[in-house]
Amino acid sequence: MVNLFKKAAIFTDLHVGQKSNSQIHNEDCLRYINWFIDLVKTRNCDTILFLGDFHHNRNSINIQTMDYSLRILELLDSVGCRMIVLPGNHDLYYKDKRSISSIKYMSKFKNIELINNQYSEGDVCFVPWLIGEEHKNMRKIKDRYVMGHFELPKFMMNSMVEMPDHGELKREDFGHVDKVFTGHFHKRQTQNNIHYIGNAFPHNFADAWDNDRGAVILEWGMEPEFVNWAQGPEYRVMSLAQLIDNPETYLNTGINFCSCSGVMLLRKFLPKISPKSPNALSKSAFALDFSSFTGSACLFSIS
After folding, report:
1. Where are the beta strands (DSSP E) in the chain?
2. CA–CA separation, 86 and 84 (whole Å)
3. Rounded CA gap, 128 and 114, in Å?
4. N or C of the chain: less Cβ packing under 10 Å?
5. On the CB side of 225, how many CA atoms lie within 13 Å of its CA?
6. Largest Cα–Cα distance of the chain, in whole Å?
7. Which pLDDT score is estimated for 277?
8. Which of 202, 212, 201 lies closest to 237, judged by CA?
9. Is 2 among the domain residues?
10. CA gap 286, 293 in Å, rounded
């Protein structure tokens, strides 16, 4: 049997159109793809694998979001290497079938293949978002690697919430394969042979203080290499007192833009926070000044 790839670049959970079709989020997606393509080229990867949730809204696609999607796919297709895409739950219109999805048009691109049903090639099994009783087939897989978009119990859905066991798919169902790589849960984590590779970049406050996101480089037969996107957006949760007392600890000095109203105002107040500023406010004065604009100063999103 000929192996499917020599070296693959893997990413997942882009969620184009998230945050009500936020242009800032869509621009983040575009910036990420440019970084990812550079990674593919510099690491001499011959295959790209995407593990689900390309779009965010499963009911409709905004026209501006669709424009970003096409630009992203054109960039990926232009790399020239084979790209295999799995649909995630956010890509599907129905919860109980995969007949309609927001990514069906991907197959029109020359180098992009959409896998809509369980499929094996080159000792790799591709499993889209499972529906019905399909989880019962996982123990029958005979390939070395499994790529999927799984909802497995006992893994962290985010930094605070563990996925409960509903008595269906279990990690033991994959105990007979070498490695499983999956999307769906956005926190990067590994248990035994199962790797949740993490979303492409932090998306919201469920990802606060957790910047281990990016991509995976998998050379056949070797251990996976997780690569972080260092220029991705970052999320911070803090009290106002913490922010004023230790601004260097909590603020990224390389802020390019802000993704929520609190931080947009915060940029205006940065000189007032810094203790080195001659115009620095006292803690009480800053709190009054800032809260008069926002009403709250507990959550900040920094990009």
Report:
1. 7-11, 47-50, 82-85, 112-114, 119-121, 124-127, 145-148, 179-182, 189-191, 194-196, 214-219, 225-228, 234-237, 299-302
2. 7
3. 10
4. N
5. 15
6. 70
7. 52
8. 202
9. no
10. 11
Contacts of 211 (CB under 8 A, 6+ apart): 202, 228, 232, 234
Q: Is residue 233 part of a domain?
A: no
Q: Does 45 or 284 have the greater pLDDT score?
A: 45
| Phi and psi angles of residue 193, each rounded to the nearest 5 degrees, phi first | -95, 10
Angle between helices 63-78 and 23-42 (to 10 degrees): 10
The string of pLDDT tens digits covering residues 71-114 is 999 999 999 999 999 999 999 999 999 999 999 999 999 999 99
Q: Are residues 59 and 26 in the same domain?
A: yes
Number of folded domains that form the chain: 2
Do 210 and 246 fall within a single domain?
no
> CA 301, CA 303: separation in Å to the nearest integer?
7
Distance CA 301, CA 263 (A): 6
The letter for the amino acid at 36 is F
**Inter-residue contact 132 to 92 (CB < 8 Å):** no
Cα separation, 112 vs 264, whole angstroms: 38
Any domain includes 104? yes
139 lies in some domain: yes
